[in-house]
Amino acid sequence: MTPATRVLLGFFFMVVFSYCLVIARTRRQLLALMLAAALVVALVSPPVAEAQGSLIGAIQSVLNVINGLIKTALNSIHTVRTAMTNFYQQVTWPVALIHQAQAMVTQMTGQYRSPMQNIFNIDLKSATLANPVALENVMRNHQTNDFATLTSSYGNTYGNVPSATAASPSDRTMMDMDDALAVDNLKILKESDAADDLTLEAANNIEDAASQSAPGSAPLLTATAIVASIQSQALTQRMVAGELRQEAARLAHDNALRKRGAAITGDINTEILNLLKRN
What we know:
Number of helices: 8
Largest sheet: none
Low-confidence stretches: none
Distance between the termini: 152 Å
Structural class: mainly alpha
Oligomer: single chain
Strand content: under 5%
Order of helices and strands: HHHHHHHH
Mean pLDDT: 78
């Protein structure tokens, strides 16, 4: 008999038993009703010993399965995982060699970083007068938000373009162009210094990451280093381009002087011819 059937029969019996208790009139009827209830309970309910025996047997079967097939499978899985871990630690990513490489990176970083940083931090300022000192300070501060201060300091040091009555138009034009190109190159220099600081910071971060890197992360560090190298090369190319512009402006200035000399020579020839004609 299933548990559901037993529940339904029990419920039906309780309803009938309650109804009989209500309609019972005499003591004999009540006694007969109690005997009938005991008989029904004895027939419906299984023996206690049998129920306990079935429960113990089911529990023992589950324990046998756990200690048998499941335990064997778990032991096999554990053996495979242990073998894979040992393979990774001894062949693919040897832990001892990784620690040795990390220690070497840490040693090299501690040995060379400070001397190289000291080279970059050497104070090269040499100006002594007020205006040149101010210009040199703003030229070497590695900042890009003070271009207005750079322009004013440059004007205070090298002077402004003369007025129209103090110099010829050609001279004023060359002076203005030379000043503009010089200030432009100084701005590019300041931007390059600021970018160099970022590149050095990135290099330090890569070194620190290499000393603490996890197995398998070497390609990521290599890619990061390549990107930083490309950025550094781009900065170098930009500085070379600035140098080429400066050289082109110098050639243009020299040619302008030659053109001006040729024009003055032509004017002198014309004046000499006019004087000869008068005589």
